[in-house]
Amino acid sequence: MDNIKIQTTQNVDIEYEVASVGDRILATLLDYLFFTAYFFIWLLIGGLTDGYIFRSMAVVTLISLPILLYDLVLESLFQGKSFGKMIIKIKVVKVDGTQATFGSYLIRWLMRIIDMRLFSGLIALLTVILNGKGQRLGDMAAGTTVIKMKQKVTINDTILNKTRPNYTIVFPEVCKLSDNDIAIIKDVVRLSIQNDNFEAIDKLAKKTKQTMGITTNLPHKQFLAAVVQDYSQYKFDK
After folding, report:
1. Alpha-carbon distance 208 to 210, whole Å?
2. pTM of the predicted structure, to 2 decimals
3. Is 213 left (phi over 0), alpha (psi -120 to 50) or beta?
């Protein structure tokens, strides 16, 4: 399975597993099932009204809008996931490690006309296969890709960790960090330990200290663990 190396906002490279072509096709087919169910409901309504509601072009246009805007609206609302992507557990992200913006989703949606509609999606299929980063033309234009999400999520997979009762924050400066910063710290530490890449931990610790405006003699790994615990307590206290 292909991986994509993403440079985070803290200048640390981490790898994510790119969603396979099969994952993306299956997610799209599931979305089409939702489309089919949606139109079937309207056909039933049309049957009950002897087709009266379909005699107005304005009504037909309104009925078609949810399908037309489906990907744009759902990916914007659910952080890069349509219903099909939720089921398959894949999502759209920016290649710089940040959450994709509405502008990114809009570009991907507009490019679907070329990617997915022309030649029955053959262009998108070939581009994803040949690109090496899991990107169709819309992803290239938007600076996004589609990655696999974790199958099992625990408290340790979220940005927050459980803290001990009466836990005292060691570094109050964690208030200068964001949820995205903590998510990156957890990902980098986890992946660095798995790959024996402690240089990334050292680099991230130095960058985090700089952002927080502090100095400490704690070992880098221990320091980052303390930062995650402190931030968890800081969020729980808010």
Report:
1. 5
2. 0.61
3. left
Sign of CA dihedral 124, 129, 131, 135: positive
Do the Cβ atoms of 95 and 4 come closer than 8 Å? yes
Give the separation between CA 13 and CA 192, rounded to whole angstroms: 10
Whether the per-residue pLDDT at 157 is higher than 50: the answer is no
What burial class does residue 81 get, using C-beta atoms within 10 Å of its C-beta: 0-12 exposed, 13-18 middle, 19+ buried?
buried
Residue 154 in tokens: 């625990």
- Give the SS3 label for residue 91: strand
Query: Could you count the other beta carbons within 10 Å of the beta carbon of residue 43?
Result: 12
Average pLDDT of the segment spanning 44-49: 78
Q: Are 93 and 99 in contact (CB under 8 A)?
A: yes
- At 238, the pLDDT band (50, 70, 90 cuts) reads low
Model pLDDT, residue 8: 55
217 — phi, psi (to 5°)? Answer: -95, 5
Q: What mean pLDDT, rounded, does the chain reach?
A: 83
Q: Please work out, in degrees rounded to the nearest 5, the angle formed at the alpha carbon of residue 36 by the alpha carbons of 35 and 41.
A: 100
